[in-house]
């Protein structure tokens, strides 16, 4: 049966291998966040398995000054034994503590992810509301244009000098077309943001 390794086991192996490593670097190598590594390191330090050196540039994890046991392997290579509690009950307690620390940090990570998802949905809903408002504005502009075209047609049917009035209506029509074009561009840009 394959040995189940917790993140605490992996951190301890990394510290034993490197002799000395920063929390941030260890987090990067293990694929964990610095907060989780810090919590695991404190737990391992409390158990006497490593030590933490605090400095201005951050925390450094170091193997304990205890001499690890050395065994000979069939290939005459030296192998460093783990310095874990030997009592099965103490070992079980240690493993449960490390798992609890990891679960607590996972809960924090999940909460952060949930907050980010909530923000994304809130922003998406705000964009959808903006699109709906712009579509209403687009509809109103279309109605305004229809009204101006009807006024221009009616004005043409009336005898007399109507050039000044037609120029005014034409200027209003051009203004509405420009505004409508801007609204349509905004709608397209917002739809791209949320890919509707």
Task: Write a concise synopsis of the structure shown.
With 196 residues, the chain is mostly helical. It has helices at 7-18, 23-30, 34-46, 88-157, 163-194, and strands at residues 20-22, 50-55, 58-63, 70-72, 78-80.
Layout: helices, strands, pairs:
Layout: H1 7-18, E1 20-22, H2 23-30, H3 34-46, E2 50-55, E3 58-63, E4 70-72, E5 78-80, H4 88-157, H5 163-194
Antiparallel strand pairs: 1-3, 2-3, 4-5
Helix pairs in contact: 1-3, 2-3, 3-4, 4-5
Please describe what this structure looks like.
This protein has 196 residues and is mainly alpha-helical. The protein has 2 domains: 7-68 and 79-84, Arc Repressor Mutant, subunit A (Orthogonal Bundle), CATH 1.10.10.10; 118-194. The chain is built from 5 helices and 5 strands. The strands form 2 sheets. A 3-stranded antiparallel sheet has the order 1-3-2. A hairpin with a 2-residue loop joins strand 2 (50-55) and strand 3 (58-63).
Averaged pLDDT, please?
79
Count of helical segments? 5
Radius of gyration: 35 Å
Question: What pattern of helices and strands is seen along the backbone?
Answer: HEHHEEEEHH
Structural class: mainly alpha
């Amino acid at each position: 049966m394959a040995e189940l390794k917790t993140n605490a086991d992996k951190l301890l192996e990394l510290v034993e291998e490197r002799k000395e490593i920063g929390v941030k670097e260890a987090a990067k190598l293990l694929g964990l966040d610095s907060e989780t590594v810090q919590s695991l390191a404190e737990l391992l330090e409390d158990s006497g398995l490593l030590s933490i050196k605090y400095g201005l540039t951050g925390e450094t994890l170091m193997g304990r000054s205890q001499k690890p046991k050395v065994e000979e392997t069939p290939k005459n290579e030296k192998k460093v034994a783990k310095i874990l509690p030997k009592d099965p009950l103490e070992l079980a307690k240690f493993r449960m503590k490390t798992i609890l620390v990891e679960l607590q940090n996972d809960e924090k990570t999940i909460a952060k992810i949930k907050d980010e998802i909530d923000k994304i949905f809130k922003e998406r809903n705000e964009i959808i509301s903006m699109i709906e408002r712009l579509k209403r504005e687009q509809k109103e502009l279309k109605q305004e244009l229809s009204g101006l075209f009807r006024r221009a047609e009616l004005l043409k049917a009336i005898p007399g000098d109507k050039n000044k009035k037609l120029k005014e209506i034409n200027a209003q029509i051009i203004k509405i077309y420009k505004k409508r074009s801007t609204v349509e561009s905004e709608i397209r840009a917002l739809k791209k943001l949320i890919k509707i």
